[in-house]
């Protein structure tokens, strides 16, 4: 067997790194070599992968803040990315975020000499490196949006980086991986369909996580970004409503301090960091912000979901969930007891959630895609 070297180049943030981990593990399990290039690198390193920090010493939050101050009209996080304005937002901001990773990623790639580059959709350094080295590039989808258009918009705006490295066009050989369940999108499959196999990090689980409670358990998360920008209080109405419901609510909020929510009712547990893929099998529903990872992890678990979108692709994800009938969407301040009761008792929601969970089980696994990726060499 020929050993193939695959360089994963991802945008910073768990929502971009985590969806690629299952494929990286599948490649390594098949005997191939994997290297990850991402800003910071801790998240991929904790998954047991060798990592190059592609932006050493750079504060990614500061990069976003500077871009926001310089481009206030384009940097509007509340923008729905499934629009022309949204695509401009993605192109402008993630070209900047991609640009800080280009030089280190190019240097690492020239030393390590990958045979294939797999990159997240919003990381323009991936296709740039693949084009410079003349190797195939594979876009690893992370959700439901038009990710090909986003990749092209970002690449187009990376004028200085492309000129510096002598890259004039996208890689000659380009493929893509589509993790969106076919029944949830009204477009053709982009490239290779793949079953979404959640990777939500590891950890020692509290004993209660594996136990199915006597009353319904509702998992609640805002992902890993929103809690850093003061969005935790968007759950205030949900916590107030929970007080009078016969259900258990688990706030999986990572490192976020839950104190802005006030004194929690007895049936609301602040659980810190709990991998969703471990929590959802004993949960009856998920309430979340609409991040692609949370949405797809709930779909894989077959549980109904209530989406409270805050911005970016979250509006699109919320609409997709509601349209397919496996969940509901609401503004955070409009959550009430009737909505939560419907989430927990509507058999139509649970039936649709089960249908889509079965649908994705039938899709090719990350292991099934290994020969396709290595076959590009």
From TrEMBL:
Residues 26-223 form the Erythromycin biosynthesis protein CIII-like N-terminal domain. Residues 238-374 form the Erythromycin biosynthesis protein CIII-like C-terminal domain. InterPro entries: EryCIII-like_C, EryCIII-like_N, Glycosyltransferase_28, UDP_glucos_trans. SUPFAM superfamilies: UDP-Glycosyltransferase/glycogen phosphorylase (SSF53756). One of its GO terms (molecular function) is UDP-glycosyltransferase activity. It comes from the Bacteria. Gene3D superfamilies: Glycogen Phosphorylase B. One of its GO terms (biological process) is antibiotic biosynthetic process. Keywords: Glycosyltransferase, Transferase. Belongs to the glycosyltransferase 28 family. This is UDP:flavonoid glycosyltransferase YjiC (YdhE family). The lineage of its organism: Bacteria, Bacillati, Actinomycetota, Actinomycetes, Pseudonocardiales.
């Amino acid at each position: 067997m020929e050993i193939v070297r695959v360089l994963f180049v991802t945008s910073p943030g768990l929502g971009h790194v985590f969806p690629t981990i299952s494929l990286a593990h599948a490649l390594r399990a098949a005997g191939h070599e994997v290297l990850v290039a991402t800003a910071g690198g801790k998240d991929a390193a904790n998954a047991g992968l060798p990592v190059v920090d592609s932006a050493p010493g750079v504060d990614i939050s500061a990069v976003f803040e500077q871009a926001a101050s310089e481009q206030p009209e384009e940097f509007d996080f509340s923008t729905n990315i499934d629009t022309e304005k949204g695509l401009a937002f993605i192109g402008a901001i993630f070209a900047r975020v991609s640009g800080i990773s280009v030089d280190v990623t190019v240097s690492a790639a020239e030393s390590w000499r990958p045979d294939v580059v797999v990159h997240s959709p919003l990381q323009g350094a991936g296709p740039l490196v693949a084009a410079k080295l003349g190797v195939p590039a594979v876009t690893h989808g992370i959700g439901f949006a038009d990710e090909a258009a986003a990749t092209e918009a970002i690449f187009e705006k990376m004028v200085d980086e492309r000129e510096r490295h002598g890259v004039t066009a996208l890689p000659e050989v380009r493929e893509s991986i589509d993790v969106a369940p076919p029944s949830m999108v009204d477009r053709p499959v982009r490239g290779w369909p793949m079953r979404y196999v959640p990777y939500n990090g590891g950890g020692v689980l509290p004993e209660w996580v594996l136990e199915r409670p006597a009353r319904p358990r509702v998992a609640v998360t805002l992902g890993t970004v929103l809690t850093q920008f003061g969005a935790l209080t968007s759950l205030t109405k949900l916590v107030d409503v929970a007080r009078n419901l016969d259900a258990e609510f688990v706030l999986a909020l990572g490192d976020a301090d839950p104190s802005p929510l006030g004194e929690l009712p007895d049936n609301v547990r602040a659980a810190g960091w709990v991998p969703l893929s471990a929590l959802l099998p004993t949960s009856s529903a998920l309430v979340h912000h609409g991040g692609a990872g949370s949405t797809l992890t709930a779909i894989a678990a077959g549980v109904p979901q209530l989406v409270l979108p805050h911005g970016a692709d979250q509006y699109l994800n919320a609409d997709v969930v509601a349209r397919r009938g496996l969940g509901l969407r609401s503004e955070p301040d409009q959550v009430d007891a009737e909505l939560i009761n419907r989430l927990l008792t509507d058999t139509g929601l649970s039936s649709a959630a089960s249908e889509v969970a079965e649908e994705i089980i039938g899709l090719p696994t990350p292991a099934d895609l290994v020969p396709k990726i290595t076959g590009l060499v």
